[in-house]
Amino acid sequence: MGRGFQVTNRTTGDSFACGDGQSVLKAMEQQGFKCVPVGCRGGGCGYCKIKVVEGDFECGKMSKAHVPPEAIEQGEVLACRIYPLTDLIIECLPQPAAGLASKQTTTKALR
Amino acid sequence: MKKGVMRPGHVQIRVLDMDEAVKHYTDLLGLIETDRDDQGRVYLKAWTEVDKFSVVLVQADEPGCDFMGFKVVDEAALNQLEKDLVDYGVEVEQVPAEELKDCGRRVRFTVPSGHAFELYADKKYTGKWGVSSVNPEAWPRGLQGMKAVRFDHCLFYGPELAAVYDIFVNVLGFHLAEQVLDPEGTRVAQFLTVSMKEHDVAFIHHEEKGKFHHASFYLDTWEAVLRAADLISMTDTSIDIGPTRHGLTHGQTIYFFDPSGNRNEVFCGGDYHYPDHKPVTWKAEDLGKAIFYHDRVLNERFLTVLT
Ligand code: FES
Ligand SMILES: [Fe+2]
User: Fold this and answer.
1) Are B210 and B306 spatial neighbours (Cβ–Cβ below 8 Å)?
2) What EC number(s) does this enzyme carry (chain B) (predicted)?
3) Domain boundaries, chain A
4) Active site residue B24
5) B250 is catalytic
6) What is the least distance, in Å, from the CA of B239 to any CA of chain A?
7) Cβ–Cβ contact B263 with A under 8 A
8) Count of CB pairs separated by less than 8 Å, A with B
9) Chain A contacts of B305, Cβ < 8 Å?
């Protein structure tokens, strides 16, 4: 790994290094941190959505359903599809998807 | 099959980057590119399939599944099924022949879970890839990656499973092969078949409409599933879970993601279903074992990560 950047999650306090050209999610996973939920790792599911509060980064392709252009301006992006250009400070977002999970097995009668 | 719906015929999958997607579905899964069209869509098939394509990739802003198509036995059956759908109150849309290259007219409809399906009777017959139909060899040389045998089924997530069941079973002639029931007896998962396979399409209850869980491809053996797992590591492809066995269907499986985050499965084995078989039931309380027979716990990702 070449020159790295430091990514700090201010919600959880975790901090890890991210290599050149490496996504924030991949760096986190590789170093054994669990401070961002890991889904498809392909910019498609929105599971790894975070807010970048400080620092610059490049974006790969992300699903518009999860990251409309307004969201990118707010720094709300997918950790699996951002590549730091400077040190980053990120924070966790509330997980709308996770709320649906429990309903899988406690669904109301359909008939 | 008594109403003339024969088998899964195709699935159109949205991808964020076409070049990356084609590489994934050909080099890794081992599908064969058979055509492209002026909308930029790429047509693929697995080697044992006799028709020209089964997977259509289309570039889009958000990944997911546009529709799944079932082939019906002939034009008369297509006309009858179309009429039956309309009589049942399902709105149908006509997709003209050649909208997908070398495919006949399609009858498209959306079920209450929010998923679009199609019926069609004709698609260009190109025969199995790389082997003759006379004295065929066991398999063709030159297959890539996992050497997927066929496109097998899709799993969709959405609401209104009971209404979806009514259309598939009562109108289209599918059978319920397996189900998951919650403690109140509500069906929260349904595995439906028109063949001897355990499922040709499956649904799991989810509040949000129209979500795509996975497209699945058949492999011959457990050895091939392990080899698929090796290839997933060799190519640093995003893995979901496996190799493992399902309780539901008892298939041996591995899940992974395409470069746009759509989930794929390759699997082998699994139970069979004849029309006189009663549905197999799993209890929602035991969903962990029903889905991952060895771990007996669900990974959260399986229920929530969708496109
Ligand atoms: S993990 Fe699916 S979008 Fe990042
Ligand atoms: Fe499956």
Assistant:
1) no
2) 1.13.11.2
3) 22-83
4) no
5) no
6) 8
7) yes
8) 103
9) 39-40, 45, 47, 97
Q: Which residues in chain B are closer than 8 Å to A61, comparing Cβ atoms?
A: 16-17, 260
- Residue B18 to residue B238: CA distance in whole angstroms: 17
Q: Which of B104, B110, B16 is nearest to B68 (CA)?
A: B110
Gap between the Cα atoms of B218 and B53, Å rounded = 15
The CATH-assigned architecture of domain B153-304 is Roll (3.10)
| pLDDT tens, N- to C-terminus, chain B (307 residues) | 589 999 999 999 999 999 999 999 999 999 999 999 999 999 999 999 999 999 999 999 999 999 999 999 999 999 999 999 999 999 999 999 999 999 999 999 999 999 999 999 999 999 999 999 999 999 999 999 999 999 999 999 999 999 999 999 999 999 999 999 999 999 999 999 999 999 999 999 999 999 999 999 999 999 999 999 999 999 999 999 999 999 999 999 999 999 999 999 999 999 999 999 999 999 999 989 998 999 898 888 988 999 9
The catalytically annotated residue of B25, B43, B120, B255 is B255
Report the alpha-carbon distance of residue B140 to residue B20 in Å, rounded: 25
Is B261 touching ligand 1 by the criterion CB < 6 Å? Answer: yes
Q: Do A40 and B205 touch (CB under 8 A)?
A: no
CA-derived radius of gyration, chain A = 15
- Domain A22-83 is in which class? alpha beta
Where does chain B hold its CATH 3.10.180.10 domain(s)?
5-120, 153-304
